[in-house]
Amino acid sequence: MARPPLTEEELVARYGPHLNTAPPGGWSADADIDRMVRTHCCFCGQQCGIILKVADDEVVGFEPWYEFPFNEGKLCPKGVKRYLQGNHPDRLLEPLERDPAAPRGFREVSWDHALDRVAREIRRIQAENGKDSFAILNGASLTSEKAYLIGKFARLAIGTSNSDYNGRLCMVSAGHGYNKAFGVDRAPNPWSDIPRADVVFVAGANIAECAPITTSYIWRARDNGARLIVADPRVTPIARTADVFLGLRPGTDSALLGSILHVLVERDWVDHEFVDAHVEGFEEAAAAVAGYTPAWASDVTGVPAARIEEAAEIWGTAASGMILHARGLEHHTSGVDNVSAAINLALATGRIGRPGSGPCMVTGQGNGQGAREHGNKSEQLPGMRRIDDPEARAYISEVWGCTDEELRGKGYSAEEIVWAIDRGEIKGLLSICFNPVVSLPDSNTTRRALEKLEFFAVVDFFLSETAFHADVVLPGSLQEEGEGVVTTLEGRVVKINEAKPPPGNARRDVDIFCDLAGRLGAGRYFPYRDTREIFDELRVASKGGVADYYGMTWERIEEENGIFWPCPEEGHPGTPRLFEDRRFRTPSGRARMVPVAFRPPAEVVDSEYPVWLTTGRVVSQYLSGTQTRRIGPLVKQYPEPLCEIHPRLAREHGIESGDVVRVSSRRGTMTLPATVVSTIRPDTVFIPYHWAGDRAANQLTNPALDPESRIPEFKTCAVRVERVGPGGATVDRRDYETRTGDAPDTGDAPNTAAGGVPGEAPGPATPPGSGT
Amino acid sequence: MPTLTEYVPDAPGEMGDRVFVVDQSRCIGCQACVQACEECGTHRGHSMMQLDFIDRGATVQTVPLICMHCADPTCAEVCPADAIKQNEDGIVQSSLKPRCIACWNCVNACPFGIPKKMFELDQMMKCDMCYDRSSVGLAPMCASVCPSQALWFGTPQEFDATRTGVLEDTMVFGGQYVRTKVQVVVHEPGPVAVAPGRRYTHWTDDPFGLDEGPAEADVSRDWPLAPALSAAQQRQAGPGAWPVAHGAGAGAGAGGVGGSAAGDAGDSRTEGARP
Known about the structure:
The structure holds 2 protein chains of 2 kinds. By secondary structure, chain A is α/β, with parallel strands linked by helices.
């Protein structure tokens, strides 16, 4: 049973997160720089170019890479401080095995011992329970070579169908929406199109905090006279500057977008020539919104009808326009529908395949685009091929030299794998680049499920909260400790270069998987001498697929500052803008408008849980925080989660900024400081999700899934908000017990002091400047 | 392998006609500038950058503040030890360590509030516009990384060709005109009056807490979301009520607006795959 060997507090004290605040050797060290390595930031799908300064095989700082065209030297704070993770004291340097008797809860073991045990347990569990009883979870911050390797490893070395990735929490709704509309899962436009748009419509995307560099593209558009429409339940930093702000109620996106389509049709702001020649489904899509008048939508969304009309007029009468959307549309049980509703606005107005015009998903994770293209996603094979397509199966079997049976089939999605573990169907798990205890919804269920595993192995560079549960921990490599390619949110394939070797006895992820494949008796499928050979096989495997990399080489990618796929043959220039020829990869060759009827969220507010909760990110943290909660200057910027609450709602509960509030849903309860801001809807509270333990917003969120994409509904659930007491320097439960005589009813671990950041004096309850 | 020297231009020289520009309206508050300032070679580990919300309760607007590098720097004028020097490029530098007596006159006198008391060094330090970089034509760290380019470094010609707004280099503090090397972006040309309008905070309305009702300030601070509420919503008793459905049966009732019921509100999961 994969229970943590010590308490969470004890494990945090031993393995972190601790804070690294200064470069190797300290600030005054005058290191001789040995190498300047041009590579890309490991955080977020923009993959900004960055030059890492390396001294004595440690990354000691960075230099802006002005010549890389996407970001021209620009970086967000995560990029600036990412170099502090390399020589971090929390790095895992030896393989570990759980040992509750050991003072640190784990004992160091040899690689042979660790890998043999992993291989033995995989085979034992499969022999007793069937091949699919062992699952793999992996991540979209891995290079494409790693993602390809792990997808192949799952099928040919382990032989399981149950392999999925954490892009299931990120890009799958967008992927399904774009596949339905275009037959291609990629943002159709390069970002250089944004400044060429007459109108930029940002729908459910906190650009300034989650894709900060994209801000400069939007500003360039505005310098060129573009108008800006923003739809969001919060006045985000980008929304602050909008011409029209649509402050919608969480979970009502398709009503809002459907109403805009309604107005476009009613006022005949439709590009009939384009629609007639290149679109199918227009009539059905229009019929679906026939009743979606702005007055109706205003009632559903809370946005004044006049603003919906105004947005429709700006979008409908412009000569060109881009609609940028992210998890705000996609993290819903109607995530795919919401994406289709956004795409419909572009298709009705003919905005695709030309400069400054297109719908674009804003991809979240480091390799959120590339990792999902090459087979670590449960329903796909390399090249963005469908695993249920006999032709695709035949091709990949040939490339891999395996039988069709060995390819296995479509397995459970990430959240469903956890559910299958919970009900005893899956008994063993190998996880890399995924911290489900923090990142999946309903974390109490996730933790309970992990504890039921017969065997759990984790590959990671830090001991994440998920790895606390592991039987065996294999110390792996950071992005800068290996090489390969990633694909950015533009569909641009760029080269990651190795800056330093893994520390101690940690090994490169690719070496770990190839070694393990050998021990599982599948070495013949993994004969790679280096990562380049994996890339060369990936090129061939992707050939003829939607995401075709065949014409690319590592050298070309570097020389040309990246190549946009598809790049089907050598010498092909790549494809920055898709569909310029108006030929779509749907069966009919036409783009498809999908009729979208508004569906309310899976959970709606009621008298017991009367407030909407929406979750999201802050600019200084990345995803589950495994890396960024260990970087001191980033932690200082926003030390702990805050509950954003509108003055009107706050007043009803007697809450002031800095007070501690209890937020409860049907799944869990957490206490945290409130920040009273009039930049959020009065019926909604917001909590960022990067933290673990009792600071985890995902204790509250709803694991209901989109029926098509299987994405969880992170962005909407119903909660109750109560004032617990005045804030202090930290949220320490013991404090309010003594002050109020009323212990919070969470009944388990003590509060934040334990789940927090040891080794540093606790920060103020409110980050500098965020309170009033 | 490339080396550090590749970033020194062919003809190292002075800053030329490049200017540092601050456009506060573009700032997104991400603090990339604050973090990158620490990486500047002339004051590693110490950020000279200031960035804060103007009033987080009311708005997400933030303001980045670097040294404005005044033509006639007040900090240098009030320094009794003549420790603050201005170089030929007009850059006002940190105090000279051998001269600085840590009297903090400069900290008190600067109209922009820029100089910092560095107690551990017993010295005043401030932004020097990354002179190790800007003196060879490279952008300072903050302007290099700024994702929104609220902080920008380049020539006035480049500015006019690519950006909107008017550059202004004169501020008025009461009767004092201060001309600065750093330019700010304004809508209309002419000196910028920095003398504040009425600062709107809770306590200015009711400094002694005499009004026992909800603070008046809070009501007006509902902007800008208050207009986003329809009249129907504002009549709702509860802050979180779904527009059509009320009470415990909200899940099913919500079907009235969309045609599809959300299921039993008591069971949050509509998916059947739960154990």
